[in-house]
Amino acid sequence: MAANTNTQDSIDDTSAPLIEHLAELRTRLIWSVVAFVVAMVLCFTVGDQLLDFLLKPIESTMRSLGNPNPVMQYTAPQEYFFTLVQISVVGGFVLSFPVIGYQLWRFVAPGLYKSEQSAFLPFLISSPALFLAGAAFAHYVVVPMAMSFFLGFADLPSLVAAYFAQGDLSVTPGEVATREGIEIVFNGKVNETLDITLKMIIAFGLCFQLPVLLTLMGKAGLISAAALRNGRKWAVVGILALAALVTPPDVITQVILFSVVYALYEISVLLVARVEKKRNADLMAEGLLDPEDLED
User: Fold this and answer.
1) For helices 18-45 and 79-108, what crossing angle results, to 10°?
2) What is the β-pairing status of strands 188-189 and 72-73?
3) Terminal C-alpha separation, the chain
4) CA angle 64-67-68, nearest 5°?
5) Once rounded to an integer, what is the mean pLDDT over residues 2-20?
6) What's the chain look like in SS3?
7) Which residues lie across from 176 on neighbouring strands?
8) Which phi and psi (to 5°) does residue 189 adopt?
9) Residue 58 and residue 71: Cα distance in Å, rounded?
10) Contact by Cβ (8 Å): 218, 275
11) In DSSP terms, which residues pair with 73 in a beta bridge?
């Protein structure tokens, strides 16, 4: 019986000396680099369209604030080119991640038990899906709110002055600025605006990996649901610090990031508890865990 179980749940028999493992690693790295370069080139060929897509939130904000023809500028000859390269690098990595993940799986899988292979594969699929969900949330929700806050804040003094001077807000900020004083105009740089957008997209994409990371740790027995529950206060402090570091210095964006990441943390607690329950049941079935130890 033990021999049969060992046959069903055994490490792959492809044992090889170190030089063959290094050769295998080199092959997987080559395929990953080729996939990344091809994806990067493809993204560069449509770099203008990707740039328009990434700048859509600020364009919509500028139009909503009364600018019928939003304009972005660059101040160095090479700036626009390197902006497209930056987009191509990020886009190329996202586009080639399924191939990179598959090559990683092909390299790691022979050293895993059959049960570990079946357990690890869903996380390999859910990770890019969660990253795309976080990136989409940042692009369609968080970035527009951040742009509205920053650009709208510049018009706030004009609106307040118009209200006290005329008693209403029927005059647009642009009309107030042309009557008296110096007109303050937003001349956005492409690379700086894009840098904010990409940072937000990457930050939310990575934060959405929290359930995957904590569930994997729970499955490996490195962390428990009880430890996550007891560590809620430290999680709150850590998430607040993260929100302050990776978001622009406005309270609204930071509150959104904190709320989303903390919700993901609570979801992770539930997932770890479920994984932990199944793991303990398997260990008890194999006689490797005493039920009394769980009560302690």
Assistant:
1) 150
2) parallel
3) 32
4) 100
5) 54
6) CHHHHHHHCCCCCCCCCHHHHHHHHHHHHHHHHHHHHHHHHHHHHCHHHHHHHHCHHHHHHHHHCCCCCCCEECCCCCHHHHHHHHHHHHHHHHHHHHHHHHHHHHHHHHHCCHHHHHHHHHHHHHHHHHHHHHHHHHHHHHHHHHHHHHHHHHHHHHHHHHHHHHCCCCCCHHHHHHHCCCCCCCCEEHHHHHHHHHHHHHHHHHHCCHHHHHHHHHHCCCCCHHHHHHCHHHHHHHHHHHHHHHCCCCHHHHHHHHHHHHHHHHHHHHHHHHHHHHHHHHHHHCCCCCHHHHHC
7) none
8) -95, 140
9) 10
10) yes
11) 189
pLDDT tens-digit series, residues 222-257? 788 888 888 888 988 888 888 777 766 667 777 888
User: Which pLDDT tens digit goes with each residue over 21-77?
Assistant: 788 888 989 999 999 999 999 999 998 999 999 988 888 888 887 778 888 888 888
Q: How far is it, in rounded angstroms, from Cα 209 to Cα 261?
A: 10
Is residue 191 over pLDDT 80? Answer: yes
**pTM score, whole prediction:** 0.72
Provide the b/e sequence for 9-38 (b: ≥16 CB within 10 Å).
Answer: eeeeeeeeeeeeeeeeeeebeeebeebbee
Enter the tokens of residue 284.
């008890």
